[in-house]
Specification:
By secondary structure, the chain is mainly beta. The protein has three helices and 18 strands. It comes from termite gut metagenome.
Length: 245
C-alpha cells in the first residue's frame, strides 16, 4: 500500500472504530488473550480514543493540521509484559500527517514522505463492539491499586450480565446489585448506576466500602494481556482489577 495521494479535506472517512493491523510495514501480532490494538475517531467532536496494546489512549485530531493530525492528550500508565507494540504505535501516531482510504475497509495513516504507510487500520466490525466478553463470574483481585489478600479473593466476586445490563457482586459481607451501562460508540466505556447493597453488619467493612466506591467511580475498562479486566475512573486511574473465576 502507498500513501501517494492528496490529503482528504475532512475526517469523515476516519469516523468510527479501527483495528491497528500494521505498523511501518510490520503486521501487528498481539500477545495471547490480548486483542489487536484499536483506535477510534469521533468526527463530530474531533476526539480520538482507543487502546495501544496495553494502555488506553485519548486525544484529538484535525486532518488539516500541518503539525500532525493526531494530538495525544493522555493515556493510562499500566505496565504490561509486551510494551514494544505500544511504543511503536505511540511513536507512529506522533508522525501522522495525512491519511488515505484503501480497499477492504482499510485506512492508511501516512507520514511526510507519503510512501509506505506508518499505520494500517482495518474497520472494526460493529457487532463486536459490545463488551459481551465481560459476561460471567470474576474475582476481585485489586481495588484502587491495593492487592486483595489471597484469603479474601475467593469471597470477592462480580458477575456481569450484559444482556440484562446488570451486575451482582459480593464484597465479602453484603450482596451488591447495580445497573450496567456501556456505549456503542466507545468500546471501552462502562459505568454502574443504582448501586444497592444489603444491610448486613460485619466486623470490618473497609474493603466493602472500597469496592462500592470503585463501582461508583468507574467510567471505562480494558482487558490486560493476562485477560484480566481493569476498571478505571474518569481520570484513567485504576479502580478495580478482575480475574476470570
Amino acid at each position: 500500500s502507498s500513501c501517494r495521494s492528496a490529503q482528504p479535506t475532512s475526517g469523515e472517512a476516519l469516523d468510527g472504530l479501527w483495528y491497528i493491523t500494521e505498523i511501518s510495514g510490520s503486521t501487528v501480532v498481539p500477545p495471547a488473550k490480548q486483542a489487536l490494538p484499536v483506535i477510534g475517531f469521533d468526527a463530530k467532536t474531533g476526539k480520538i480514543f482507543g487502546n495501544s496494546g496495553c494502555n488506553r489512549i485519548m486525544g484529538s485530531y484535525d486532518v488539516n493540521s500541518k503539525d500532525g493530525i493526531i494530538k495525544q492528550e493522555a493515556r493510562t500508565r499500566m505496565s504490561c509484559a509486551d510494551m514494544k507494540t505500544e511504543e511503536n504505535i505511540l511513536n507512529a501516531l506522533k508522525r501522522i500527517k495525512t491519511y488515505r482510504p484503501l480497499n477492504n475497509n482499510q485506512i492508511a495513516l501516512c507520514g511526510e514522505k507519503k510512501q509506505r504507510p506508518l499505520i494500517i487500520l482495518q474497520r472494526k466490525a460493529s457487532d463486536i463492539n459490545t463488551p459481551s466478553s465481560l459476561d460471567g463470574d470474576w474475582r476481585i483481585v485489586a481495588v484502587t491499586s491495593a492487592i486483595i489478600p489471597a484469603e479474601k479473593k475467593s469471597k470477592l466476586l462480580v458477575s456481569f450480565n450484559t444482556t440484562k445490563k446488570s451486575i451482582h457482586a459480593n464484597a465479602g459481607c453484603n450482596e451488591i446489585n447495580a445497573i450496567l451501562s456501556t456505549d456503542e460508540n466507545d468500546a471501552y466505556a462502562i459505568s454502574f448506576s443504582k448501586i444497592a447493597a444489603t444491610m448486613k453488619a460485619c466486623p470490618d467493612m473497609t474493603l466493602e466500602r472500597q469496592v462500592i466506591t470503585a463501582l461508583h467511580e468507574t467510567q471505562s475498562y480494558n482487558v490486560s494481556g493476562k485477560g484480566d479486566v481493569v476498571l478505571y475512573n474518569k481520570d484513567g486511574k485504576l479502580t478495580m482489577v478482575l480475574t476470570k473465576k
